[in-house]
C-alpha cells in the first residue's frame, strides 16, 4: 500500500523564515492600500522566493498494515469448574476462538488463568496467596503490545477474580468484555472464620468467631449446625444462626499443632460444599509447666536438675529438699526457729495433681514423707501424671524408695548392687529408634563421643523399655507407661559429669530435656507417630515407629480420591515419603494404626470464599472501557464485530473489537516539487515585470 504526502525542508531557520514572511506580507498589504503599481508582480516574486526557501517535496510511503491484537482470557480456576461452568466455559472458548480467528487483520492471544492454590507457584496464572489473578495474566499477555494495536479483551469467567484491574487496561481505549458463566441469581452457603487465635494455652478454652451466610437466598436467617473436629476427633455439634457473627469455645488438649475443622450443614441451593468447611491451625502451648523436684541427700549433681529446670522460663519449679533429717537435732528451741514450715501436705496431697512432672533425685526413706504421700504419687502416675527418678546408691539400700508404694509404678527393681568404674553410657538398639535418645550428638560412634560415668545402680527390668545401657548391658535409662501416666528411671547419679564437661562432657541438656518432655506427653516425642506437612506442592509424610518396617500410608486427597504411599527408612525408627499434590485443602493419612491430617495451600482459599457468578469484580473495568458484561446461562456465544475506536462496543447478541487500522512504514522516497533555481528565476522575472510596470 502506497501513500503520498507533502513535505518541506526549509533552507533557512524557521524563525528567519517566519520573520521574513511577516515582513513581506506587511509590505504587500501597505502597497495594496496605496494602490501602488506592480503589486501583483511583486506578490508573485515574493511567493516564488518563499517556495524556494520552503523547499517543498512529495513524500511517498510504502505502508504495511499491522494486525490488531485481541486477548481471550479463559478462567479455568476451581470455582469456574463447579456445576456446568466448566463445560460452558470450554464451549464459549471454542466459539469465541473460531470467531476471532475468522476476523481479518486480528491476532488472537489466548490466556489460560488458573488458581495456584498457594502451593508454591507465583506466576501470571496464580498466586502463592491463592485466588484467581485474571487481570495480571491479561496484563502480562499484552505487555509487548502498543496500546494503539489492542482491539479488545474478552474474558470468560465466573467473575471471582482476586487481583485488581491495573490502570493500564483502562487507558488502552480497547473495550473489555466479560462473558460470565452462569446466572446472576445463584444461592450458596458459606462459612467464614472472622477471628481465630494462632496460639492457645493447653487445657484452657479458646474463642473462635465465625459466620455462616446463605448468600443470595431470600431468607438469610436460618439455624445451621456445625460439626467440629480437632485432629480428626469429633466434638459435640454446635448450632448457630446464619447471617450473624457467632462465638464458639474450643479447648486444646495437647501442645503443638492442632488442626481444627469446622463444617456447616448444607444449605438451600448449594453450589459447592467446599466453602461450608473451614480449617484453623492453632498451636497449643503449655502455661508455665509446674515441676516438683524432691531431692534427697546433697550430692555433686544436685544442682544439675535445679539449674536445668530454672533455666527454662516456662518452668515453675518447686524444690522440696531436706536440709535437716528428723534424726538430727541441735537443741534449738522451737520459738527461735526462723524457718517457715514446708507445705508438705499441700504439695503431696492437696495440689499434687497440679504438677506436670515429679522428680525424685537420690531420695530415700527418711521419715520425712509419710507412706500415704508416696501412695498419692503412685496414684498420680496411674491417673496420667509423670514421674522421673534419678537413682543413686540410696536406691540399692534398705531405705530404697522402691520399698514404698512407688514400687508399683517403677519398671526396674534394684538388685542391691552398685557398680563402680568408668564406662561410656551407650544408646541401645531400641534407644536408637526412640525419639528421646535417637540422634543424640556423639551416639553414632563406638564408643560414643562423650565422657564416662563412674557409677551404675544395678536393677532388673520387669517392664518398660531400656534406651541406654551401662557396662555388661545393664539398664541405665528405662521408660515405661503405667496406666494413664509415664515413668522414667535414670539408674545413675553421674549425669552431672557431662554438665561439668568431664572428658568433653556430653549431651546431658538435650537428653534430659527430651526425657522430661516425653514424660509430659509432648506429641513430637511419641514413639508411634504419623506426621505430614505440605510445602510448595509436595506432601512430606514422616512415620516415627519402634518397629523395623512400616506399612504403606493411604493418602486421602481433599476431593476424596486416595493414593498409597510407600515410606523408606531415613534413620532408625524414622520413615519418610513424598508425593506431588495439586489440590488445596485437607489431606488425611492413615497406615492402619496411626492417622494424621494436614492442610495444603491457604487454609480457607479465596477461590471458595464466594463462588457465585458475579459482575462486581469486572464491572468497573467494563464501564470504564465501554465494554460489556453478560450472564450466559447456555452455551451461546456472542458474535464479533469490528468497530471504530470510541464507537458503541456491544449490542444485542454481539460484542465489538476495535479496528485500529494501524500500519508500519516499510520505505519512504522523496521527490522535489520545485527546484530552488527555478523558483529564483521565476522570482527574478516577476521582479523585472514589476519594475517595468512601475516605470511606465
Model description:
InterPro entries: Class_I_gatase-like. This is Glutamine amidotransferase domain-containing protein. The protein is α/β, with parallel strands linked by helices. It folds into 5 domains: 93 residues, no CATH class; 149 residues, Rossmann fold, CATH 3.40.50; 90 residues, Immunoglobulins (Immunoglobulin-like); 217 residues, Class I glutamine amidotransferase (GATase) domain (Rossmann fold), CATH 3.40.50.880; 72 residues, Immunoglobulins (Immunoglobulin-like). Helices cover 21% and strands 35% of the residues. It contains 13 helices and 38 strands. Strand 5, helix 5 and strand 6 form a beta-alpha-beta unit. Helix 1 packs antiparallel against helix 2 and helix 2 packs antiparallel against helix 13.
Q: Number of helical runs? A: 13
Q: Could you say which overall geometry the principal axes of the C-alpha atoms support?
A: elongated
Residues in helix, %: 10-25%
Helix- and strand-based class? alpha/beta
Rg to the nearest angstrom? 44 Å
